[in-house]
């Protein structure tokens, strides 16, 4: 930061000013990042989308400018209580704004008590807030975001991502990148593994054709489920445990799917390990599912066991042919496909949980020398032709294919 201020000193005119506005310590977003263990150093954090955020204290900010030859003209800590009416909660937003000018680095300005509370006792907001038709600044939903609160800019928290997957075209509503770091649910975003797996399903319709398909943790996009429904799956059930993700998912399905396919694509709430949710899906489909699919769902260690437990309860139980004549050879075993970017959960933990609930790894991509697989040609055939063969991902994606053992 000092280097930035030194560069500003070189180009700033003698009578020029530096106008500063940024997050303050104690802001709601900082508290969320602390709870998610995303701290890099003192008051410095990484958001979920990889961008960085620093939260300034009064002392740090004034000392930073003072040490680099600036005097303080104004310095305010701005407080605002933001009401989320749908959740019936009130949240505290905090930011600092200040004015500095070139000087000798000695300022007599006292900043103690320079606190402006927007929409409360302060007769004029420290920052212009455009809230048409709303005289009370307090009654603003947090969905307007920090851009609205800090800079008077109202912007949508959603954006549209356009995807072309072979002959299929999608317009998917997701939470915009600006707001993703404030989301508790990862299901409000579109992940690369979902894009990739949707392309695989599109070019290899045999994976889902005529089958009952369950997608775990599909989030708001549901592109794999929509592709499966478009590729002659008998039944597709798209699930997620987050109600907001499901609301947005239903919007995306209505926006993108042909009306003739609505009857075969069902959305349902499913928290892994939740008996009531599992029973609801069983009542809807008591035959079990031929294919269970999950994209980027294996990133929290504590969720791995419930994931496989849930898959075990809902998969169609058919005997795997082990050569002993105990299974019907012409009938393909039900499969669980996981496509993900390896993050905080190592593959050994995934395989251990899978084995505990009766799943056997029969193929993986890419192949590794340390993993023993019994059917190495299942996934390779998916990439033997077409778009998938020419556009393999550059990121560290992994596909695991399991059979359910009786």
Automatic annotation (TrEMBL):
Question: What InterPro entries does the record tag this protein with?
Answer: Methyltransf_16 (IPR019410), METTL2/6/8-like (IPR026113), SAM-dependent_MTases_sf (IPR029063)
Q: Which UniProt keywords apply?
A: Methyltransferase, Transferase
Superkingdom of origin organism: Eukaryota
- Is the keyword Nucleotide-binding in the record? no
- MF terms in GO: RNA methyltransferase activity; S-adenosylmethionine-dependent methyltransferase activity
Q: Which GO terms describe its biological process?
A: methylation
The family note in this entry says: Belongs to the methyltransferase superfamily. METL family.
Record PANTHER family: METHYLTRANSFERASE-RELATED, TRNA N(3)-METHYLCYTIDINE METHYLTRANSFERASE METTL6
What is this protein's name? Uncharacterized protein
Which lineage?
Eukaryota, Viridiplantae, Streptophyta, Embryophyta, Tracheophyta
């Amino acid at each position: 930061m000092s280097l930035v201020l030194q560069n500003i000193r070189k180009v700033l005119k003698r009578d020029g000013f530096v106008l500063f506005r940024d997050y303050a310590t104690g802001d709601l977003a900082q508290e969320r990042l602390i709870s998610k263990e995303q701290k890099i150093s003192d008051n410095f954090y990484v958001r979920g989308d990889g961008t960085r955020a620093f939260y300034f204290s009064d002392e740090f900010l004034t000392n930073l400018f003072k040490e680099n030859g600036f005097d303080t003209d104004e310095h305010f800590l701005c407080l605002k209580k933001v009401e989320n009416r749908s959740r019936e909660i009130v949240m505290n937003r905090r930011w600092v704004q200040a004015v500095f000018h070139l000087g000798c680095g000695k300022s007599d300005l006292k900043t103690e008590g320079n606190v402006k509370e927007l929409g409360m006792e302060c007769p004029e907001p420290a920052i212009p807030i455009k809230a048409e038709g709303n005289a009370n600044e307090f009654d603003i939903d947090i969905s307007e975001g920090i851009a609205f609160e800090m800079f008077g800019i109202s912007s949508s928290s959603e954006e549209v991502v356009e995807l072309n997957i072979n002959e299929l075209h999608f317009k998917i509503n997701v939470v915009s990148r600006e707001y993703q770091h404030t989301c508790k649910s990862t299901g409000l975003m579109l992940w690369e593994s979902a894009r990739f797996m949707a392309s695989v399903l599109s070019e290899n319709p045999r994976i889902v054709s005529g089958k009952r398909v369950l997608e775990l943790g599909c989030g708001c996009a549901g592109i794999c489920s929509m592709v499966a429904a478009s590729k002659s799956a008998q039944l597709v059930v798209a699930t997620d445990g987050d109600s907001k993700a499901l609301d947005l998912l239903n919007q995306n399905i209505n926006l993108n799917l042909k009306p003739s396919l609505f009857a075969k694509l069902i959305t349902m709430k499913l928290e892994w390990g939740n008996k009531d949710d599992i029973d609801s899906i069983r009542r809807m489909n008591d035959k079990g599912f031929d294919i269970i699919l999950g994209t980027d769902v294996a990133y929290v260690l504590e969720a791995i066991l419930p994931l496989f437990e849930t898959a075990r309860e809902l998969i169609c139980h058919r005997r795997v042919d082990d050569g002993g004549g105990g299974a019907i050879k012409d009938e393909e075993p039900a499969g669980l496909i996981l496509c993900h970017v390896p993050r905080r959960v190592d593959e050994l933990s995934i395989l251990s949980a899978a084995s505990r609930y009766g799943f056997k790894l029969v193929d993986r991509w890419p192949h590794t020398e340390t993993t023993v697989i019994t059917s190495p040609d299942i996934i390779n055939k998916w990439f033997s032709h077409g778009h998938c063969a020419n556009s393999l991902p550059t990121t560290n994606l992994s596909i695991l294919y399991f059979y359910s053992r009786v």
